[in-house]
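Subject: Sanity check before I submit

Could someone independently write out the structure tokens for this chain? I want to compare against mine line by line before I put it in a report. The sequence has 278 residues.
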Amino acid sequence: MSDRLAVAPILSRLRDFQRRTVEYVFRRMYLDEERTTRFLVADEVGLGKTMVARGIIAKTIRHLEEQGVERIDIIYVCSNAAIANQNLNRLNVYGNRHFTMATRLTLLPAHLKGLKANRINFISFTPGTTFDLKNRGGVMEERRVLYQMLRDGFDLSRTGLLNLLQGTAGKDRWRVYAEQAVELDPHLERLFQKQLRQDRSLLAKLRETAEEFHRHREFSWEESNRRYQAISGLRRTLARVCVDALEPDLVILDEFQRFKQLLHGDDDAAQLAQALFE
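---
Independent answer below. Compare away.
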């Protein structure tokens, strides 16, 4: 590759003990006969664990390039967006290129362009909104992504689909927003549509509910409940498609101790996270 990452300048900015840590972790994960697939770096606050992670990212990218890997996915998971914004510039060894921040898995199609075509995908998630889908209706941006993936390919009433995905948003505001063009990753869009066609039960529920919502009016609690069941099913399907489409070569967990439930739990959020990590 002509655009291989220059690792030496990145490592030269590290202190000696940070560089030794990078070299040791890298050797244990990639070079030793009995390699490990997980490694915990623990140190006092302020001693540069983020810079160690940067060094490991750089060496991993260069190693995989030399191995002929054509697409490299690196995932950074931290506890909240504030920490992400603070650390991402230091972690992203390519500067502003190749970087996507999608706090929700279901927004990945709108935030990541060309997943399969990109040589490097550097993606940040926050677990509270990425893996936890308990809020059945999600946010407007998620429902707009779903609407634009669904409106042309499933013989659905467009008005019914709009009303169904409106959620708690105002009618006029939602309709203008939903129709605003969004550039979606074509690979993720095709995978979602394929998965939905295979899930006959969810597709039947979607068609039935869209027909029920064809006319805009005041909807009963039972009708609203069916609306949110359909939206929840669509969001879960899209989240699992995005997990399956990502092929992480390296996952960085910042503040590891905060993710115990994700690593060892068995609820929906933990299952999504574990599928990504594995």
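---
OP: Matches mine. For the report I'm noting this point. The two ends are 28 Å apart (CA to CA).
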